[in-house]
Amino acid sequence: MTEIITETVYFEGIGAVNSRMALELAKKRADTLGIRDVVVASYTGETGALASEIFRGYNLIVVAGMVGFMEPNQDRMKAEHKKTIEDSGGKIIRACHSFGALGRAVNKKFNTIQVDEIIAHVLRLFGAGVKVACECACMAADAGLISTDREVVSLGGNGGGADTAVILLPCNTHRFFDMRIREIVCKPRSWERLR
Fold it and tell me: pTM for the full model?
């Protein structure tokens, strides 16, 4: 059998301070593997705008989540970041979280956890960024902006910015267990536990 020996970078902390390095590490690995599809989580568009600079010429999908997540009708993406992303050829997705749509509504109304939240909590054992990267890849596949038969690089973070990059074979949300996380390019080594 053939082994693949590659580097994984572990950040000492979480968050946006790691964004540029995470994106650059992801690009380096994507180039090595010939991957042209890139998925990036970005509510405000700041990380998406940075990604559009680093991944110019790639199929860049910026997953902004849904309007109204924090407050009804609130769009957290800044107009200048949206323009930067779109002007560079990036695509922006607005959609419910794959791991927290109706299940979250049931939790809020009846104070009981649903299966999508259990999956999210299990993925968070690796850090919030791994959960976000997997979730955003599902959302991009559901939107038809990436293919489920090609590896992608997907980036997420913990409370702002990108601090995690994974190479994965994506799937649609309703086929979640067909996803394959092939490599972890970078992630925080430690993070605050979420409740």
Answer: 0.93
